[in-house]
């Protein structure tokens, strides 16, 4: 299953080699696709249109949040720092895979029965956490894991039900999956699918990609937070899993082009595709960089709702993913 392979591939920001190679192999198998990889590591998949439509860029970031090894204790335990936004409260006892060889490890901390009362009531700080790979000492650990090595969560994609799937890095491997599925079709417009890097550490790849492509318009496909969980009032839900792709009206980095948002809404209504609006304005996406490139690029954001993003395991609806594909495909065919 392509989504499983995308989810399970390693690709922490700045070290996206494995996920990039997988995406290039998949994109190259689509008919009529020409691939380029830029100096930053973005993959640009060009597909010439059959007519005289505008040049459209679709973007999805391939990188994921993760951990980077920054020190080694005499005992062989690894010290680490986050790459991207991670809630350290969810890390203790989680299994991880370290480096390109995917050395198995587990995140450890001071045992609870040795903690003082006040320590039990506060989250561990980064310096209080470590990765245990079973090394006997510092020398053995350093031989296996050089400083700067990145680490991913050891999570395999699986279905919780016919509709719901769970896996790591669904932000934004669901977007990468959508783009690869869309590349299998032909359109009147010229299409460029940009699989971008380093989104999780400052939206870095998208600006470079947009500058090179200079599209007439762009759609950013993202996995976004779904807050439809207990103790959150319904009016506070950013998005809800299972209610279709979410259109963005505003977030921290961009205010999407209103005509594009309205056109997407019109297409969804005509094609009977369920949609929702993202009701939170926090967070940012590659759309923010794309919008400000060169003289400005009209952009809109379409998101697949995912619970528990930036954690070892996220939850998403397969029907939401399919509806996102259907919506973008129908939109492209109106151009």
CATH superfamily of the largest domain: Zn peptidases
CATH topology assignment of the largest domain? Aminopeptidase
User: Over all CA atoms, what is the radius of gyration?
Assistant: 21 Å
Label the overall shape.
globular
- Low-confidence stretches are none
H-E string:
HHEEEEEEEHEHEEEHEHEEHEHEEH
Report helical residue fraction: 25-40%
Distance between the termini: 31 Å
- Any idea how many domains? 2
Q: What do you see in this structure?
A:
The chain is α+β, with helices and mostly antiparallel strands. The chain folds into two domains: 2-64 and 168-332, Aminopeptidase (3-Layer(aba) Sandwich), CATH 3.40.630.10; 66-153, Elongation Factor Tu (Ef-tu), domain 3, CATH 2.40.30.40. The protein is built from nine helices and 17 strands. α1 runs antiparallel to α5 (170-182), α5 (170-182) packs across α9 (318-332) and α7 (258-271) crosses α9 (318-332). The two termini are 31 Å apart. The model has no long low-confidence stretch (mean pLDDT 95).
């Amino acid at each position: 299953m392509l989504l499983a392979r995308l989810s399970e591939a390693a690709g922490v920001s700045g070290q996206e080699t494995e996920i990039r190679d997988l995406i290039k192999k998949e994109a190259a198998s689509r008919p009529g696709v020409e691939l380029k990889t830029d100096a930053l590591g973005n993959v640009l998949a060009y597909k010439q249109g059959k007519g005289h439509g505008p040049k459209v860029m679709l973007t999805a970031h391939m990188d994921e949040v993760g951990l980077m090894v920054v020190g080694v204790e005499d005992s062989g335990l690894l010290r680490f720092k986050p790459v991207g936004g991670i809630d350290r409260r969810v890390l203790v006892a989680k299994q991880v895979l370290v480096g390109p060889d995917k050395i198995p490890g587990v995140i450890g901390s001071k045992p609870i029965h040795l903690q003082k009362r006040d320590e039990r009531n506060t989250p561990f700080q980064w310096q209080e956490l470590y990765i245990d790979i079973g090394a006997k000492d510092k020398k053995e650990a350093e031989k296996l894991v050089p400083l700067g090595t990145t680490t991913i969560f050891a999570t395999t994609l699986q279905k919780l039900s016919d509709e719901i799937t769970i896996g790591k890095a669904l932000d934004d491997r669901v977007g990468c999956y959508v783009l690869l599925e869309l590349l299998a079709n032909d359109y009147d417009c010229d299409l460029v699918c940009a699989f971008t890097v380093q989104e999780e550490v400052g939206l870095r790849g998208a600006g470079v990609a947009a500058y090179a492509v200079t599209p007439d318009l762009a759609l950013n496909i993202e996995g976004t937070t779904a807050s439809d969980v207990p103790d959150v009032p319904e009016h506070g839900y950013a998005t809800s899993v299972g209610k279709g792709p979410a259109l963005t009206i505003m977030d921290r980095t961009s205010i999407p082009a209103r005509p594009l948002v309205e056109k997407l809404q019109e297409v969804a209504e005509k094609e009977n595709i369920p949609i929702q609006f993202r009701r939170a304005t926090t967070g940012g996406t590659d759309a923010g960089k794309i919008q400000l490139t060169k003289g400005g690029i009209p952009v809109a954001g379409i998101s697949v709702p995912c619970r528990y993003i930036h954690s070892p395991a996220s939850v998403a609806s397969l029907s939401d993913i399919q509806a996102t594909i259907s919506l973008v495909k129908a939109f492209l065919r109106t151009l």
